[in-house]
């Protein structure tokens, strides 16, 4: 296990609060495409080991893993299947020695008014985005604290958690749930955990593909910076939460060009 000040017995005295070190081995959920894939590439470029999963291993993810097999572990895992997630964390732990960062990025979207959304769809969205994400966070934290280490978690939420958008009620509820949980967890684990949310505005990806050109142009017009969010706007914000000393905890950082200002 790497040297870490949290490897010694926990002492709650006011002087015993070392800064949480930058994460060196990070789990990324939903890494097959879109923002998740971009996050994997950004972490690798910054020397961070990555354990990346999604249900599909895309050619790009396979290519990245073949180029750096020591730094990148990729597996086809459905986040809602706990046994598979546990096996994946075990394997990642063996490969990297320990895991001290988690980026909760996997999610499914929605594009339906609530009255036309099936009960099955509601269950699927809540199970993937909220229940399975909290479960992965629980499994990650149990390992981290069993090793008496400190770590960092980033939840990718959405501007939809803070502002209303038609057709996204269930999705918005899951992202709002993660933001509430983040505040509670920052208090629960205090100086052993830096946990924050990054809430992007709409950006181009498979998830947002149902938005028409007209809708995208209208969002850009209403955005103070005049342009839609790009994944390259989100990467430095997540990177700083994973690698820099910021003293941010329990917060939601909104990356939307000021659209919600
Ligand atoms: N695009 C936007 O406008 C926007 C705006 C705000 C926030 N966000 C958030 O940003 C994050 C990334 O979104 P994106 O736009 O990049 O979406 P995306 O292209 O649809 O990617 C979603 C990722 O989640 C994975 N995933 C979905 N269900 C999964 C499951 N059951 N198990 C494991 N992985 C699963 C997908 O892989 P598989 O399908 O292969 O499993 C994929 O890798 C999400 O949390 C999203 O809510 C997006």
């Amino acid at each position: 296990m790497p040297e870490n000040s949290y490897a010694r017995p926990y002492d709650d005295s006011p002087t015993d609060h070392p800064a949480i070190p930058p994460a060196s081995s990070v789990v990324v959920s939903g890494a097959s495409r879109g923002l998740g894939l971009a996050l994997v590439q950004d972490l690798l470029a910054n020397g961070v080991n990555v354990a990346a999963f999604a249900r599909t291993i895309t050619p790009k993810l396979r290519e990245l893993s073949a180029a750096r097999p020591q730094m990148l572990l990729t597996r086809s895992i459905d986040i809602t299947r706990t046994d598979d997630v546990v096996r994946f964390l075990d394997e990642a732990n063996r490969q990297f020695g320990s895991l001290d960062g988690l980026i909760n990025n996997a999610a499914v979207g929605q594009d339906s008014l609530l009255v036309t959304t099936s009960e099955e769809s509601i269950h699927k969205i809540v199970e993937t985005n909220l229940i399975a994400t909290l479960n992965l966070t629980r499994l990650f934290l149990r390992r981290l604290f069993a090793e008496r280490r400190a770590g960092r978690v980033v939840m990718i939420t959405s501007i939809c958690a803070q502002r209303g958008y038609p057709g996204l009620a269930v999705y918005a509820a899951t992202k709002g749930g993660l933001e509430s949980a983040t505040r509670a967890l920052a208090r629960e684990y205090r100086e052993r955990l830096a946990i924050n949310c990054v809430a992007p505005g709409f950006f181009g990806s498979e998830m947002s593909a149902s938005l028409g050109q007209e809708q995208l142009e209208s969002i850009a017009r209403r955005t103070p910076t005049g342009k839609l969010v790009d994944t390259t706007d989100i990467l430095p914000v997540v990177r700083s939460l994973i690698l820099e000393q910021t003293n941010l905890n329990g917060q939601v950082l909104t990356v939307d060009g000021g659209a919600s200002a």
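Confidence is low (pLDDT under 50) at residues 1-11. The pocket of NAP is lined by residues 29-36, 54-56, 78-80, 105-108, 128, 156, 158, 200, 202-203, 205-208 (CB under 6 Å).
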